Amino acid sequence: MSFIATPQSMHFDEPLPLQGGGSIHDYDLAFETYGQLNADKSNAVLVCHALNASHHVAGVYEGQPKSEGWWDNMIGPGKPVDTNRFFVIGVNNLGSCFGSTGPMHPHPDTGRIYGADFPVVTVEDWVDAQARLLDRLGVARLAAVLGGSLGGMQALSWSLRHPQRMRHAVVVASAPNLNAENIAFNEVARRAIVTDPDFHGGHFYEHGVVPARGLRIARMIGHITYLSDDVMNQKFGRQLREGLDLKYSTQDVEFQIESYLRYQGEKFSSYFDANTYLLITRALDYFDPARAHGGDLTEALSVARARFLLVSFTTDWRFAPARSREIVKSLLENNRDVSYAEIDAPHGHDAFLLDDARYMNVMRSYFDGIAEEDQPAGKEAA
Amino acid sequence: MSFIATPQSMHFDEPLPLQGGGSIHDYDLAFETYGQLNADKSNAVLVCHALNASHHVAGVYEGQPKSEGWWDNMIGPGKPVDTNRFFVIGVNNLGSCFGSTGPMHPHPDTGRIYGADFPVVTVEDWVDAQARLLDRLGVARLAAVLGGSLGGMQALSWSLRHPQRMRHAVVVASAPNLNAENIAFNEVARRAIVTDPDFHGGHFYEHGVVPARGLRIARMIGHITYLSDDVMNQKFGRQLREGLDLKYSTQDVEFQIESYLRYQGEKFSSYFDANTYLLITRALDYFDPARAHGGDLTEALSVARARFLLVSFTTDWRFAPARSREIVKSLLENNRDVSYAEIDAPHGHDAFLLDDARYMNVMRSYFDGIAEEDQPAGKEAA
Question: Can you tell me the ipTM of this complex?
Answer without folding.
Answer: 0.94
